[in-house]
Write a structure and sequence with these properties.
39% of the residues lie in helices and 16% in strands. By secondary structure, the chain is an alpha/beta fold. It has an eight-stranded parallel beta sheet. The chain has a two-stranded antiparallel sheet with strand order 4-5. A two-stranded antiparallel sheet has the order 10-11. 48% of the residues are buried. Helix 1 (27-39) links the parallel strand 1 and strand 2 (44-46). The protein has helices at 27-39, 55-64, 115-129, 144-147, 151-160, 162-171, 186-192, 214-227, 255-270, 275-285, 299-310, 315-323; strands spanning 13-14, 44-46, 73-78, 80-86, 107-111, 136-140, 177-182, 201-205, 230-234, 247-248, 251-252, 289-293.
């Protein structure tokens, strides 16, 4: 169990932005960003069919095509099948994430967590990624934020379909690990309570950040630590608002979040700390965390992420955040 020995480092590259999340980016910019990640020593890349209806996978596959496959770790996701049929990307029902990839490809996306769809999704991803194997496969977005009140029924389909397929593929050595890739803690908590099947790790986006971590600390992370199941933290910048962007939870950041970020940045400046260093090192301080996977679409951002991990963040900074209740009293920081 766990993936820490599989991952080549604690900093990965999340490629949701390469699917034209929030904006349309040129192919050249996307390729240059992946190139910058490689040149900065990043060797773990996470993607998904959902990111721009296959666009992120296509771009990542193109950018990594000339790299030795044994030198990097690759994860993608299942739960959505991309069809040749076209649709209006701006009219998709994405639950709480409406409009997220309206600049992506117009190929129709179908939610399907059955066994057959899982196998098809993997085959399609291999083709788009131009590779012969995947290292980690996550079951994507099997949670309330995308499926509303039906999410438990969707989860049950995944449990009897995708979960079992991925466990079999792992046991056969076809993939090295599997788990869930979600934006909510509830499906992970349910999965940790299962006797069978047993995942190796989880990718949790947005729920263990400077801005939102209380719920994860209550039950999820202690249970994961006890069971030896690793966590990959996605969205460590909370959809960008912690890194100078305007979005929180994939939408325009509300005033109270903007104010909280402003205070975090003031305290960071007082202690000579960059906000990126605070965000990444906070997420990595928990013993359950195996890696963080921030996203980027500009090459310069990659160097910033690498430098942020090397920064010295003084204990006085974390103490100041605790004093102002900006982070939980029991959140690990070292």
């Amino acid at each position: 169990m766990g993936i820490k020995s599989l991952l080549p480092g604690t900093l990965g590259f999340g490629t949701a932005p390469l699917g034209n999340m929030f904006r349309s980016i040129p192919d050249e910019e996307a390729a240059a960003t992946v190139e910058a990640a490689w040149d900065q020593g990043i060797r773990y890349f996470d993607t998904a069919p959902f990111y721009g209806a296959g666009l992120s996978e296509l771009r990542l596959g193109e950018a990594l095509a000339g790299r030795p496959r044994d030198e990097f770790v690759l994860s993608t996701k299942v739960g959505r099948v991309i069809l040749d049929e076209l649709e209006d990307p701006t009219a998709r029902d994405l639950g709480e994430k409406g409009g997220l990839f309206e600049h992506g490809r117009p190929n129709k996306m179908v939610d399907d967590y059955t066994a057959d769809a899982t196998l098809r999704s993997i085959e399609d991803s291999l083709t788009r990624l131009r590779t012969d194997r995947l290292d980690i496969v996550w079951v994507h977005d099997v949670a309330q934020d995308f499926h509303g009140d039906d999410w438990l029924a969707v989860y049950e389909t995944a449990r009897t379909g995708a979960f079992r397929v991925l466990q079999r593929l792992r046991d056969e050595g076809v993939i090295k690990a599997w788990g869930l890739g979600v934006n909510r803690v509830e499906p992970i908590e349910l999965t940790l309570d299962l006797n069978e099947p047993r995942p190796d790790a989880f990718l949790l986006a947005g729920r263990y950040t400077l801005l939102d971590h209380d719920r994860s600390l209550q039950r999820l992370l202690p249970a994961a630590t006890e069971q030896g199941v690793d966590m990959v933290v996605g969205g460590p910048y909370s959809s960008g608002v912690l890194a100078g962007g305007r979005h929180f939870e994939y939408q325009e950041a509300p005033a109270e979040i903007v104010a909280k970020v402003g205070r975090l940045k003031e305290l960071a400046a007082e202690h000579g700390v960059s906000i990126k260093a605070a965000a990444l090192q906070f997420a990595l301080a928990h013993p359950a965390t195996a890696a963080v996977v921030p996203g980027a679409t500009r090459p310069s951002r990659i160097a910033e992420d690498v430098a942020a991990l090397a920064e010295d963040v003084p204990a006085a900074f974390w103490a100041a955040l605790r004093d102002e209740k900006l982070i939980a009293a029991d959140a690990p920081t070292a």
